[in-house]
Amino acid sequence: QVQLVESGGGLVQAGGSLRLSCAASGSIFSINIMAWYRQAPGKRRELVANDISGGNTNYADSVKGRFTISRDNAKNTVYLQMNSLKLEDTAVYYCHAKIRRAWDSLLYDYWGQGTQVTVSS
Known about the structure:
It contains no helices and eleven strands. The chain has strands at 3-7, 10-13, 18-25, 28-39, 46-52, 56-59, 67-72, 77-82, 91-101, 107-111, 115-120. The strands form two sheets. Strands 2, 4, 5, 6, 9, 10 and 11 form a seven-stranded mixed β-sheet that branches.
């Protein structure tokens, strides 16, 4: 009943920008955390940025100053604005949300399907 749908990935030249979005839908009571992770070939999945209810945001050092995470609570949607993209940003980006489900009031982790971001020279 709950799912995350990502969009916005694609191919972009170094120095360009992309905006990822992730919308949660279904029987949701509340969303505590929304976050973006990424995984490059041969690398572990890493946290890129998160937005914790209460106004706390966190960024990986590698993206600080270039990426911005934001949340639209009315739409249950999180965004990742990526500027000044570098070759090293190439990865599959995954949306994550910690959601309190409406039917059992339990917190549960949900993941988007992943979207490829490729930065070229």
